[in-house]
Batch of 4 targets.
Target 1
Amino acid sequence: MTVRSGTPIAVRQLSLVPSGRPVTIELDAPVARPSGEWICTYRIGGLGRARAGRVIGADGLQALLLAVGAVRRELDSFGGRLTWDGEPGELGLPEFVPEFLGGAFRRRVEAMVRTETEREVRRLEQCVAPQGARRP
């Protein structure tokens, strides 16, 4: 697949652990095709061979979200050898719930994420609260 290089609308700089060597992700603006589909191209540099791809979405936003997911999958094989914020393996690229499984499934998974997020916030608050202190 040949991917044309465009002007990126989003760039993320990752680091290879432990060397700190930069790895760059670039996402281009989605482009409408005459067929009505939207194409979003991406590039990943700094990991040896250049990686590039494109995804097709029903609209520009879907194409952009699918490109983020494609980049995440491309980087999965590097596991904890990459970082965005210093924590090995943390890329700051969310895992999206597949749309093809339907809205009920998506809502159920999103509710689980909210529940687990709230549980973790409470746990962290208890860790930093002084002994005997109560939250208002």
Target 2
Amino acid sequence: MAKTKLQEVLDRALALSLYQHRIDSLRPAMRTLQDAGRRMFTAQAYDSLLAVYGADLSEATKEEKDDRKAAAILLAITAALALRLSRDVALLQPGLEQALTAAVVNAGLAKYGIRADLRSIKAQEWLAAHGAELVTGINQFTREQMAIVLRDGFAAGKSVDDIAADLMFKFNDMSWPRAYRIAVTEANKAWTYAELEHAKLMEDAGFLMVKQWLLGPTHPRMDRCDEAAEMGAVPLSHIYPNGIGGPPDHPHCGCCLTSYPDTGQSQPWGAMVLGLTPTPFGQGDANAA
């Protein structure tokens, strides 16, 4: 059945309201993540410059010397980035933790009047695993971009000093947009993680839970998110056609994941979750003092 114009307007108003609520909740975490990302890029830039000047180019004096130089420098940079791994994870952790806290307070079990904390979603385990994964991914992107600068620089006959300057410029050029992209994407990932973890706690208590991909109101065009949103309510374990379990699907993704007890099934209201009783929507807080 096709939606009426009024239904479409109401759906969009709801999407905008939910989106703004989530963005407002995550704004402090995004600022922290953005600042951490910028500082990480700056520190990596200086470490990479040291790696450029410290690279052993003694073997790069024969044929294909430019390729040898580029390989030697990239290897040195890779080693420098690897040494930064634990420091970069620690640098990004406060912002990720802020995002998780916002999600716990404003989503998940909060919908049922249950006040949870970071322990309820195994936050420390997620921070350790995802932080390392995030930094590894950032560094892979960094190496790929550097390889292009090295290749193009040597092909143009530039000196090592000139190429080092190009690398520094590239880092500075990446810092603002890359840091903002990381902030938005990672805050969204934290929200989705907290939502799913709390939904699993509900399932453990006997509730029959579903999740739903809510399309962000800021999408400029149709993409894979639209296909995921059109599926409506699906099981928590469902993997969407884009190969993931929830938003974000791409940088700057404004979509959100929500979960709730399947309205078509009988639910065990009165069961305990984290020692408290979930309250059905619109029935107040059963755990209020």
Target 3
Amino acid sequence: MTASRTSPGIGDVEARAAEQFDDPSYAARRLFSEVLGTFLLVLAAAGGPVVDAASHGRVSPAAQAVAPGLMVMAVIYFMGTIGGAHLNPAVTLSFSLRGNFPWRRVPGYLVMQLAGGALAAAFLRAVFGNIGHLGSTLPAAGFSDLKVVALEAVLTLGLVSVILGTASGARNVGPNAALAVGGYIALAGLWAAPITGASMNPARSFGPALIGDHWTTFWAYVVGPLLGGLAAVGVAWILRGSATRAGTEAAQGSLPSKTPAKRRGSSPARSRRSPKKR
């Protein structure tokens, strides 16, 4: 027998990955992972200011900035392979513009992300009440809407660049990607959260705005991250060229196939056969 009959080629791997991603039985898992992941992210990000208000200042600004990064790191570790762990409309749109994620899947992901953010804000309000502006991302006094757009765009440019870069097939793919993305979110929050809240995520800003009715400058927290994500796609093309298969797998997830692992043309007896003596 030839090796081509027992070893899958690159085309076979890509075909199976595409078929698996289109399998309806996995679609619900991917969408659920986006709801759950975004819920946990917004719970940590908006929960910091809420618990700080409820506990009369027991949650430091540094802790509030670092908590979302640690949560994203944990989510990527435990279910990033299910649906890519986008958790952010700017990330989903950037993956699609990059060519790593099919456009027909974008509406479902966006709806689930917004729903996850709203559920987290609703949970916080039910437990703590409408305090701490329900964790809404609000600009510092005297900071104009246009400055919010500019800063959020630059912050998101960095975030999405890290995400696209660690998904491209470089050394940071895998566990190190969670560290890089989570670390960036924490770092951005440490220096920028006092000014804009360092949202970088329309879903994170949407939940508290909807449930708490805090719509001040909300539009800036949508436009800024989307512009930053668009710029990051351009940066990715400059640095790495066209989209890679590794990036597609990172964006779409890699759920286990339902097909048997046994290869065609092989038999249990053959697989158990002891190696020939030299």
Target 4
Amino acid sequence: MTDPYARTGAHAVGAEPAGPGAEPSLGELISEITSDMTRLLRQEIELAKVEIKAEARKAGRAAGMLGGAGFAGYMVALLLSFAVAYGLSNVMDLGWATLLVAVLWGIAGALLFLRGRSAMREVNPKPEQTIETLKEDAAWARHPTS
């Protein structure tokens, strides 16, 4: 039994046009557009993944710097605070010496915080290149001949 809806000849989907100068059929054009759009979408998704991964790496490095600076700052502040406070206690009261050391470490902590915050501001979670190419693709889809 034959399928009455089966297409044969040049009208079959995926078939070559009848002659060298023949126009492709509507089905062939739609198939080609669908294939192109699928490929384009996959490329855009891959580009977004690459961009997001790069930004996540930058954010991870910045967070690592902030964490390392915090821990190192804590250890240095703790141990040096004792040493400096006891050293200054020879020329002033131990309470004033300890306060002076705490103020100095407060300034150091503020500087580390400002540097870490500056590094975090450089992180851009938006995939800028992907957004730009999507805008270009949308413009092309609206006006494919321009």
